[in-house]
Design goal:
single chain; mainly alpha; 9 helices; about 0% strand; DedA_domain; transmembrane; VTT_dom
Length: about 190
């Protein structure tokens, strides 16, 4: 199997996974809107009143700098059910995500190499992410910004391997695309489920 063919197969698989994840999110939101609309409206009303756009921004910083904190899609759900403005939601969440990824990058660059436990933790994920870095280089950051590849772990990894921050930041700008696509997929699920 040639290298080009192997790259195409992996990219095709990632594209299929991404499309499937968007469809799954849409179906889940449809189900939530159909069965739990009243409860979600009540919860999101409190979230919007108390935290607003700053809550989305800070939530995304935490989500994309601390793996397994809260999935970013949970904040999208709160924004949609709380009837927050789409543009402000997308901007606050995207900027929060990029800032969170940048924090993860600098943790990978400066802190993780100094601590054995941190290095061991990242090594587990590096094994899964290194093939993407080897094949796509900077493109691996773009792929993690758009696809189900964990963005925060990619940020730790490229920081650990000392990728130039400007390249990482440029690739991270694709988080705007991901947040926008998932926002409207979830919005479609919400309005069709109610």
């Amino acid at each position: 199997m040639t290298k080009d063919k192997e790259t195409t197969i992996n990219l095709r698989s990632l594209i299929i996974q991404t499309i499937l994840s968007i469809v799954i999110v849409l179906v889940i939101v449809f189900g939530l809107a159909f069965f739990f609309r009243k409860e979600l409206l009540g919860f999101s009303e409190h979230f919007v009143r108390i935290f607003g756009y700053w809550g989305l921004f800070v939530g995304m910083i935490l989500s994309d700098s601390l793996p397994a904190f809260v999935p970013p899609d949970a904040f999208l759900m709160l924004a949609i059910t709380g009837e927050m403005d789409p543009i402000l939601t997308i901007l606050s969440m995207s900027f929060g995500s990029i800032l969170g990824g940048s924090l993860a990058y600098f943790i990978g660059l400066y802190l993780i190499p100094r601590f054995h436990l941190g290095r061991q933790m990242v090594l587990h994920y590096e094994e899964k992410l290194l093939p993407y870095l080897r094949k796509y280089g900077f493109g691996a950051v773009v792929l993690s910004a758009l696809t189900p590849i964990p963005y925060s772990w990619m940020a730790y990894t490229v920081g650990t391997f000392k990728m130039r921050y400007s390249l990482f930041l440029f690739g991270s700008l694709f988080r705007f695309v991901r947040v926008t696509v998932y926002f409207y997929a979830m919005y479609l699920g919400w309005i069709t489920g109610g």
